[in-house]
Amino acid sequence: MEKLLARSDAPDHIVIETSGLALPQPLVRAFNWPEISTRVTVDGVVTVVDGKAVAEGLFAHDPAAIDAQRKADEMLDHETPLSELYDDQIACADLIVVNKTDLLEQAEADQLVTRLREQARDGVQVVRSTMGRLPVDVLLGMNAGAETDMAGRAAPHHDSEEGEHDHDHDEFESFVVTRPEIDDPATWVAQLSDIIRRFDILRLKGFASVAGKPMRLTVQAVGPRVEHYFDRPFGMNEPRETRLVVIGEAGLDRAAIHAALTT
Length: 263
Description:
By secondary structure, the chain is α+β, with helices and mostly antiparallel strands. It has two domains: 2-148, 3-Layer(aba) Sandwich (Rossmann fold), CATH 3.40.50; 170-262, Hypothetical Protein Yjia, Chain: A,domain 2, CATH 3.30.1220. The protein has nine helices and ten strands. It has helices at residues 24-29, 34-37, 51-55, 63-72, 82-92, 106-119, 136-139, 185-199, 254-262, and strands at residues 2-8, 13-17, 40-50, 95-99, 125-128, 172-179, 203-209, 215-222, 225-233, 242-249. The chain has a five-stranded mixed sheet with strand order 2-1-3-4-5. A five-stranded antiparallel sheet has the order 6-10-7-8-9, covered by helices on one side. α6 links the parallel β4 and β5 (125-128). The chain starts with a strand and ends with a helix. 30% of the residues are buried.
């Protein structure tokens, strides 16, 4: 199944959850309608995969039940095979969540994650979960603007026009890295993208102090895609430093990442 995370001008996020049988591209394209596009953007498309089923060569826990559901709902596409729906949802995703990883052996889960990364678009992150639970910082804030970036989201077979479970969040971690001012924003941002790829970082966000510039350089990274812009002047008593929050799956090499970000 896939989820669309929509962001408006307000700080609130609206989560739109669709059926696991839905073709994602038409729904994402709908956010280009004039009545919608001036007010809301698609923050990101999240595809949730049944890890146990896919590892067994299926696309759902009960394919027969899925087929019956499709036939009973006139609003759903009845012609597209389930395998093609799966391919469409993987191709359109900005984030892939492999659910039910607790039902897989470690080697089996690793193999599935590797395969999904190869199938997905470049830079799309693949994370693991149990019972579909993830920290909000992992799900929100992608700023993908998916409705304006549809060219690469088609699967190969399609034309391009087409509180109580907080312990589960121990599978993810975050930490803060500070460093002095930077000299060259363009070179530094390119280095960030390389570091994110090298250490498999999910998110990186914060701001930098640029030598000779009165304003902060804000940084937002989802996978290796790094957005940066000057947002506001530093306050009178605000330290001129660079401060970044690193978010990833548990087991990040904090020492190596800290060294890379502060070099």
